[in-house]
Amino acid sequence: MREDTMSDSKVPQRFLDLARKMRGPHALSEAGLRERFGDPAQAEIKAGQVWRARWDEVSMLVLVLEAGAREVNAVPVTIDPPGEDETSVVVEGARTAFGVEATVWAGLVSCVPVRVLERVVDAWDEDIVGCAAARAQGRPVPAAAGVRQGQMIRSALEPDAETRAGLADDLEHLQHAPGLPVQESGRPPGTLASLLGDRLDLRTLCSVLEMPQPEVMKLLRGKAPLPADRIGAIASATGLSAEQIARTVRPLPADLVQAIEHPRWRSVWVRRARQLEISEAQARLWGSYGAFALAARETGGGAADWDARLRQFLGGEDTTKGGA
C-alpha cells in the first residue's frame, strides 16, 4: 500500500487513528514501541514480530514466520481497509496492539529481504503465528482464541480481490529492492568492460569518471578497483544499476552485507541519502565500501566487527536518530 503520511520513526498515522478509537495510541507511538521493544537500533528480528516494511513509496506490514540472515519468510498484514480471502487468517483486535481486526494474508507468503524492514511494531503469540504458518502451508487453521479462517473471495470484482492484488504487487516491489554485491566463493567478479559492452566509448567513460585513459583502461580490464564514489557516475551515464556496476568492483564479505542491511542502520542510510541527494541504495553502497576500505587499511587478526567499522567510518553517527 502507498503511504504518504509515514515518517521515518513513526507508525503510519492512520494506524494510530484506528488504535486511538479502540484502545488508545500509546502501544504504537514511538514511546510505546520503545517500552515494548527497547532501542530500535538493537532490535533483533524474530518469528512472530510484525514489522513495517518499506521501499520507495511502498509500505506494508508483514508478520515474520521465519527469520534468516538476509531475508525473512513473511506474510502481509492489513488492518485497513478490512479484507480477507480463504487462505488468510483474521485476528481479533484484543490480541494485537492495533485494537482492530487484523488480516494475515497467508496465501501471499514470500521471502522478504531484511534490507526493507524498517521498524518492529508488534509481537504476536505463538498460537497466532502457528495459525498463519498453517495457512501458508495450505493446512487448516488450528484452534486459537480470537483467530478464525478468512472467508472466500467469490468474485474478482470484489474489493478484497483488489486488496490482495495490490499486496502481491507491493511484495514484488519490496523483493526487488537493490541489494549489495556479495562475495561468492570460487566465483570471480566480471569486468567493467564486459558489463558496459558498447554502452560507453572510452573517451566518454574517461569524461564521466574524470580520469586519464590509462587509469580507465585498468578499471575496464579489472586490473584496478573502481573507486566506490565513481559507481554512481557510471550508473547515471549508462542506466545500469549501482549494484550491477558494484559487482565489477569487488564483492563485499557476506558478514559485512548482513550487518549493513540490518534495520538498525536503516535510519542512517535514509538520512545520508537526503543529505547527499542520492538514493537510499546508493547511500548504503557508499557506506559499505567505506567501511570495507577502512577495514582493509587496518591490521589485526580475527573477524571484523562490521558494526564497529561502520560507526568508525561514519564518525560514530547515532543509528537511532530519526530522519529530518
Number of E-type strands: 8
Structural class: alpha+beta
**pLDDT < 50 stretches:** 2-9
Strand content: 5-15%
Distance between the termini: 23 Å
Rg over CA atoms, rounded to whole Å, is: 22 Å
SSE order in H/E notation?
HHEEEEEEEHEHHHHHHHHHH
Mean pLDDT: 84
- Form type: elongated
Q: Tally the helices: what do you get?
A: 13
The description of the largest β-sheet is: 8 strands, antiparallel
Helix share bin: 25-40%
Tell me what you see in this structure.
With 324 residues, the chain is of the alpha+beta class. 39% of the residues lie in helices and 14% in strands. It is built from 13 helices and 8 strands. It has helices at 13-22, 30-37, 126-136, 159-175, 192-196, 202-209, 213-221, 231-238, 242-246, 254-260, 266-276, 280-297, 306-313; strands at residues 49-55, 58-67, 71-78, 89-91, 102-104, 110-113, 117-123, 147-149. Strands 1, 2, 3, 4, 5, 6, 7 and 8 form an 8-stranded antiparallel sheet that branches. A hairpin with a 2-residue loop joins strand 1 and strand 2. Helix 11 (266-276) crosses helix 12 (280-297) and helix 12 packs across helix 13. The protein is elongated and about 70 Å long. The two termini are 23 Å apart. The model is unreliable at 2-9 (pLDDT under 50).
What distinguishing features does this structure have?
single chain; 324 residues; alpha+beta; eight-stranded antiparallel β-sheet; 13 helices; 8 strands; elongated; disordered N terminus
